[in-house]
Amino acid sequence: MLAEHCKHVILNISVMKKIYLFFFFLLFLTNRSQAQTQVYSDKEYSKNPYWISMIKDTSVNFFEAEKAFKLYFSSHDKPEGEQEDIGEHAKMEKYPSKRKQREMQRENHMRMEVKKYEHWRTMILPYVQPDGTILTPAQRIQIWQEQSKKKN
Asked: Lowest CB count within 10 Å: 76, 109, 124, 131, which one?
């Protein structure tokens, strides 16, 4: 009788674990879908570089990402391009302070992110729909196949 009761308790615990895992997974999916569709205020866009994560999201609205980029740099300095002057290294300090090094690292990071954005924008622009949605890779392939059939 005791063994049967223990077996019943163990089965209940196993079922409870599955239920908890299911709800945890469901909660995770809900939070993930909310994060992808979140739209911030203009004030938030001007304070934080949300455009960096937006260009990595395949379901982003193009016009919203562009708005975030422009608003961010309306209140921040856009990093200059790489210096191509001869002797640019001579202008740099020989031993910059830790603070200066951190500033340089942040500027270099932001410069790279701006380059990524500009590349993303160039590559995505032909696939932007009038409402700002971007064609999925499958839709792009379908269009390419249709065009190649017309040529042949």
From this structure: 131
Residue 72's nearest CA partner among 44, 91, 102 is 44
How many beta carbons lie within 10 A of that of residue 6, not counting itself? Answer: 10
Contact yes or no for 62/133 (Cβ under 8 A): yes
Question: Directed axis angle between helix 98-124 and helix 62-75, to 10°?
Answer: 150
Strand partners, 134: 128
Q: What is the rounded distance in angstroms from the CA atom of residue 70 to the CA atom of residue 8?
A: 62
C-alpha 12/C-alpha 104 separation (Å) is 58
Q: For 115-144, what is each residue's pLDDT tens digit?
A: 999 999 999 999 999 999 999 999 999 999
Q: How many structural domains compose the chain?
A: 2
Interatomic CA distance for residues 107 and 119, integer angstroms: 18
Beta bridge partners of 128: 134
The two tokens of residue 20 are 């908890």
Domain that holds residue 24: 1-36
88 in a domain, yes or no? no
